[in-house]
Specification:
Layout lengths: L5 E9 L3 H13 L3 E4 L2 E4 L9 E10 L3 H14 L12 E8 L5 E3 L8 H10 L15 E2 L2
Antiparallel strand pairs: 1-4, 1-5, 2-4, 3-4, 3-7, 5-6
Protein name: 2-amino-4-hydroxy-6-hydroxymethyldihydropteridine diphosphokinase
Pathway: Cofactor biosynthesis; tetrahydrofolate biosynthesis; 2-amino-4-hydroxy-6-hydroxymethyl-7,8-dihydropteridine diphosphate from 7,8-dihydroneopterin triphosphate: step 4/4
InterPro entries: Hppk (IPR000550), Hppk_sf (IPR035907)
């Protein structure tokens, strides 16, 4: 556990029972610290094989360290019924970046380059140059 709080930039996605899985994820993430969620966007599957995804982002401020958060996120995915590999994703939550302030964040090298379905919701919360995308692209916003 950290002595100070860390900000985690998280990407969330689901293309199976999205409302149920996002409700579960939001409740669980809120129990880890202070959270701010982006709007939820409906974005087509990256490879065109699976169903459209609900994608959102979260800024989580917590005293947990990055390894603890990553472990918790994998457990949440498993609790939602996540099966790997599959194009039917009940819940995917990834740590995209972390740091003490939004001006001093470290990107997760395992998640680079960032996909459009990560950039769009995360840019709503954190206007970092690496998250910029062609603003003329519009996807439906989901209301839960």
């Amino acid at each position: 556990m950290n002595a100070t709080e860390t900000i985690f930039a998280l990407a969330l996605a689901s293309n199976v029972q999205q409302q149920q899985n996002f409700t579960f994820a939001y409740e669980q993430l809120a129990s880890l610290g202070t959270v701010e969620f982006s709007p939820i966007y409906e974005i087509p599957c990256r490879d065109g094989i699976g169903a459209d995804y609900w994608n959102s982002a979260c800024l989580l401020k917590s005293r947990l360290c990055v390894d603890e958060v990553t472990e918790i996120l994998k457990k949440l995915e498993a609790q939602s019924g996540r099966v790997r590999p599959s194009h039917h994703i009940s819940l995917d939550i990834d740590v995209i970046a972390w740091g003490e302030t939004l001006d001093h964040m470290q990107f997760n090298p395992k998640k680079l380059p960032l996909a459009l379905d990560v950039k769009i919701p995360l840019y709503d919360l954190w206007q970092h140059t690496d998250l910029a995308y062609l603003q003329s692209m519009h996807y439906p916003v989901i209301t839960m």
